[in-house]
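Aim 2 progress update. The chain analyzed this quarter is reproduced below.
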Amino acid sequence: MPAKTDKPEDAPAETPHYHGHRQRLRERFHNAGPDALSDYELLEMALFASLPRRDTKPLAKSLLKKFGSFAEVMHAPEARLREIEGIGDASISQIKLIAAAATRIAKGELRQRTLLSSWNDVIGYCRTSMAFADKEQFRLLFLDKRNQLIADEVQQVGTVDHTPVYPREVIKRALELSATAIILVHNHPSGDPSPSQADIQMTKAIVDVAAPLGISVHDHIIVGKNGHASLKGMRLI
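Predicted structure tokens:
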């Protein structure tokens, strides 16, 4: 079956009503700023380029109804986006471009800072890159002796509720990069970032392997769409 594509040339010509509505949104965006727009209005604007001859409001509202928020739309799996009537390749590409840009910006900000002095940036980056994924990911942030980011790597991708983690592989990679500290990060697709007993045990196992080699585990952060949890903040490590 051929891939579904947006075909704006087959859509009805944009009426003055749509044109006027788009212009008013653009003016509010430029004059009052993005905070003046609701999620569905911001999503409408994000879809303007991919659907130049269609009213994007119904599609924006359908996407938000299915996924819940602007962020969840941006990070929704492509297969689930295709379930929405009226969406095609061009719109999906536009959505994924915005998601990629947000992650790239957050990552760039991390590289310019000492991580332990910009903890909100660390949390923001972790949530942007992982909180809305539909499968568990185990990510490692490797730091140098100044606590600046050396590398950011996804070590494992698992299922909806489990990711296999091997402590010795984590430390082996830290040694390869000459990292003196690491931050562990993983997501809970359920949305609840509360650590499980397995999360706590795995973290302690990594700490036990890392300590004799002079590698610090600064924290294990768990992110979900409902927030985040810090094992260090909870005094679990």
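The beta strands are 137-143, 149-157, 181-187, 216-224, 227-230. The CA atoms of residues 12 and 53 lie 7 Å apart. These observations will guide the mutagenesis experiments scheduled for the next reporting period.
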